[in-house]
């Protein structure tokens, strides 16, 4: 029992329950109908029907005519068609507007996600650039190694210089010592 009534209220006698069509199926049908009414095929069919209707009611024998000259019945049929076509077309337009709204919302959602992703990637690239600014590059390392090698060469040259002076001094002192010995002998 799929009845959604309340148990504390009495039933309403005589209430007629009308069948409820599936709104989605009805909407699809109305869209197909509205699409068909907007085609040249529909206009050709309507034109043929109206021309046959008018031709029959003018040219047929008097006993076979079902809509005399003022074509009141044709006017009624066309009014009936228009009275049903307009709401069906509006229903189809409303469904299309709903689809467009959903597509727009989805586009906005995707654009927001892409923007967030782009901002994240931009921040990451900026962080990498900053980090790379602090990391020694190949050129920087090469220049530092060259500078250190020059400093080491200069220090080695300075160390060797006093040793030369000491050696010269030792050599000169040794020569001076040896000279008197040689002269003694």
- Helices and strands, in order, run as HHHH
Strand content: under 5%
Mean pLDDT across residues: 85
| Overall number of structural domains | 2
Fraction of residues in H or I helices: over 70%
Could you describe the 3D structure shown?
With 185 residues, the protein is mainly alpha-helical. It has two domains: 23-110; 137-185. The chain is 78% helix and 0% strand. The chain is built from four helices and no strands. It has helices at residues 23-37, 40-59, 72-134, 138-184. α1 crosses α3 (72-134). The chain is elongated and about 155 Å long. The termini are far apart. The relative contact order is 0.04. The mean pLDDT is 85.
Provide keyphrases for this structure.
elongated; single chain; 185 residues; mainly alpha
Short description:
With 185 residues, the protein is an all-alpha fold. The chain contains four helices and no strands.
List the helices and strands and how they pair.
Elements (H helix, E strand, L loop, with lengths): L22 H15 L2 H20 L12 H63 L3 H47 L1
Helix pairs in contact: 1-3
């Amino acid at each position: 029992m799929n009845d959604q009534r309340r148990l504390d209220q009495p039933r309403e006698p005589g209430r007629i329950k009308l069948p409820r069509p599936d709104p989605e199926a009805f909407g699809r049908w109305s869209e197909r109908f509205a699409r068909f009414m907007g085609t040249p095929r529909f206009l050709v069919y309507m034109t043929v029907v109206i021309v046959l209707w008018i031709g029959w009611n003018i040219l047929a024998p008097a006993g076979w005519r079902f809509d005399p000259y003022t074509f009141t019945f044709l006017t009624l049929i066309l009014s009936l068609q228009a009275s049903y076509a307009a709401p069906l077309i509006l229903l189809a337009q409303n469904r299309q507007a709903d689809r467009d709204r959903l597509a727009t919302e989805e586009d906005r959602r995707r654009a927001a996600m892409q923007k967030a992703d782009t901002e994240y990637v931009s921040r990451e690239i900026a962080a990498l650039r900053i980090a790379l600014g602090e990391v020694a590059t190949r050129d920087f390392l090469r220049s530092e190694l060259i500078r250190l090698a020059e400093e080491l060469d200069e220090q080695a040259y300075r160390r060797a210089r006093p040793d030369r002076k000491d050696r010269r001094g030792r050599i000169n002192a040794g020569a001076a010592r040896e000279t008197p010995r040689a002269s003694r002998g």
